[in-house]
Fold this protein.
Amino acid sequence: MAVTPDVTDAAALLDDLVDTAHRIRNTIDSVIEGKSDVVRLTLTVLLAEGHLLIEDVPGVGKTMLAKALARSIDCPVKRVQFTPDLLPSDITGVSAYNQQTREFEFKPGPVFANIVVGDEINRASPKTQSALLECMEEHQVTVDGATYALESPFMVIATQNPIEMEGTYPLPEAQRDRFTAKIAMGYPEPAAELEMLDVHGAAQPLDKMEPVATTAEVSALIRAVRSVYVSQPVKRYAVDLVTATRHSPELRLGASPRATLHLVRGARAHAALAGRDYVIPDDLQDLAVPVLAHRLLPSLEAQGQRLRTEEIVSELVRRVPVPDAK
């Protein structure tokens, strides 16, 4: 049976996606030792047109991961160091008066880039954190009544320290909900930490990194991910998973409809990275915790039992029936 041109083109795009993603992963793995699962999830969020929140204690490589992804792609990258005195205009930009033209001119802020690295985002005030709300959801910035479109692809990679640490402000629920996924780096294995001493002890590996993909390539891969097939039973399964968080007695705030969209988009990217042009329930299960847990608020009873939202989501995944058809 002859293969139609559309099928041939789709297969070629999928092969390109897997090959490009493999190059990016290898480049990042040369800097971040022993964290292949974290790197894979980071690429999944990128191809799902999402944003990533990296939370962990200082010194485990949060900023290094963000910088490694940014340097592996040949595109404009901006970094913002969030501090208590940072203002919203320091992020979005400001209208300044030009003495020569006698008119106000817009000076773009650091969000006008393909990848924006927000370091220690929860050290800034909630007002400054909220400056990212519009750009993360609508890919645009509004200043003094004028709206400016952001470049595509656009991704925010934010790092934060645990909220128990001194000098941090918890992210508002609306801000957390705009992050597609949240991950924790975790401490490296002894073997990986020993290798890190050899690699990082003599030189800075980021200085040797060269881009292995272009903005045009990443944009093409994102378009390919959008075409990954999601069957009706799998869509229903995604809705059932999110609905379960809204009815759980262990949660006082369930996941939003935006979470359902992010879960399905992430599942498409997850399937594409596995070389498939269709989503299976396993894709949703693998992403349920990183995509849903950070959006939820535990009930007082769950807090008293010291249940983490990650544990609650994992239990819900075990309870929700899995569809038979793909």
Q: What stands out?
A: The longest strand covers residues 93-98. Residues 1-5 have pLDDT under 50 and may be disordered. Residues 212 and 281 are 32 Å apart (CA to CA). The chain is about 45% helix and 15% strand.
